[in-house]
Design goal:
Length: 211
C-alpha cells in the first residue's frame, strides 16, 4: 500500500483547513494552518489570489480533503464510495456515515487515540476488541450496538491515557457512549449527517465520481 511520508501539516495547508492529523498539536498555536494559512510550496501564497476555481477543481479538492481527513488511499476511498453507491439513501451522507463507522475512526472518536493514524496503529497492533473479540482490521465496519474496548493489557497505555485526557476537554458525538475509566465505548445509534462533525460538501464528491 502506498504511504504518505512527507509532513502531514502540508496536507492541512493544501486543503486550507485543519484535518487533525497530528493530534493535540492541531489544537495549539503550533498548528501549521494557524501559522501559515496558505498552501505549501513556492507559489502557495499566490494560489489564493488566482481566479475562481472551476467546478471540477472544487470537486477534486473536496474529495482530497475528506480522503485525507480519514487517512485513506485513493483506492480505499474509491472502493468505499462504490460500495455505498449501491445502498439506498442519499449517497453523500451514506459515504460519510460509512467512513465514520470504520473501526479506526470509532477508536479515534471515542478518545482512545489522539489521531486516526494513531488509532490505526492501535487496531493493527491488536490492542482493540470489538464485542469481546480482538479486531485488527482498521477498515472493519461497525454497526449500532457494537461495543469497542481496549484490550486488558492495553488499557493503561500512555498514548490511551493522554488521548482520553485531551478528549475529555472536547465535545463527544451524540451517537457514542464512552466509559473512559473502563476504556470501553458503544455505538448507540446510526449517525445522522448533522451529528457528524465534518465540514464537507459531500455532494461534490458524488458528482466527481459520477462522471
Amino acid at each position: 500500500m502506498s504511504r504518505y511520508t512527507d509532513s502531514v501539516c502540508k496536507l492541512c495547508r493544501r486543503e486550507g483547513t485543519k484535518l487533525f492529523l497530528k493530534g493535540s498539536r492541531c489544537l495549539t498555536e503550533k498548528c501549521a494552518v494557524e501559522k501559515r494559512a496558505y498552501a505549501p510550496g513556492q507559489h502557495g501564497q499566490a494560489m489564493g489570489r488566482r481566479r475562481k476555481a472551476s467546478q471540477y477543481a472544487r470537486q477534486l479538492r473536496e474529495k482530497q480533503k475528506v480522503k485525507r481527513l480519514y487517512g485513506l488511499t485513493e483506492r480505499q476511498f474509491r472502493n468505499t464510495f462504490e460500495r455505498i453507491n449501491r445502498e439506498p439513501g442519499v449517497t453523500g451522507e451514506n459515504l460519510l456515515i460509512a467512513l465514520e463507522l470504520r473501526l479506526d475512526n470509532i477508536v479515534y472518536r471515542m478518545g482512545f487515540a489522539p489521531s486516526r493514524k494513531a488509532a490505526r496503529q492501535l487496531v493493527g497492533h491488536g490492542h482493540v476488541q470489538v464485542n469481546g473479540r480482538r479486531a485488527d482490521v482498521p477498515s472493519y465496519r461497525l454497526h449500532p450496538g457494537d461495543e469497542v474496548r481496549m484490550g486488558p493489557a492495553s488499557k493503561d497505555l500512555d498514548v490511551v491515557a493522554a488521548s482520553l485526557e485531551m478528549a475529555s476537554k472536547g465535545q463527544p458525538v451524540s451517537w457514542l457512549a464512552v466509559d473512559r475509566e473502563a476504556r470501553t465505548g458503544r455505538i448507540t445509534e446510526r449517525p445522522a449527517r448533522d451529528t457528524i462533525p465534518v465540514a464537507a460538501e459531500e455532494q461534490l464528491i458524488v458528482e466527481l465520481y459520477s462522471k
